[in-house]
Amino acid sequence: MTIFSKIIGTGSYLPAKKVSNQELADQLAKKGIETSDEWIVSRSGISSRHYADEGEKSSDMGVEAAKKALEAAKLTPDDIDLIILATSTPDFIGGFPSTACVVQNKLGLTNGAPAMDVQAVCSGFMYGMSIADSMIKSGAHKNVLVIGAEVFSRILNFDDRTTCVLFGDGAGAVVMSASNEPGVLATKLHADGGYADILSVPGTVQDGAIAGSGYLQMDGQAVFKLAVSVLEKVANEVLAQAGLNAEDIDWLIPHQANLRIMHSTAKKMRLPLEKLVVTVDQHGNTSAASIPLALDQAVRDGRIQPGHKILLEGVGGGFTWGAAIVQM
Question: What pTM was estimated for this model as a whole?
Answer without folding.
Answer: 0.97
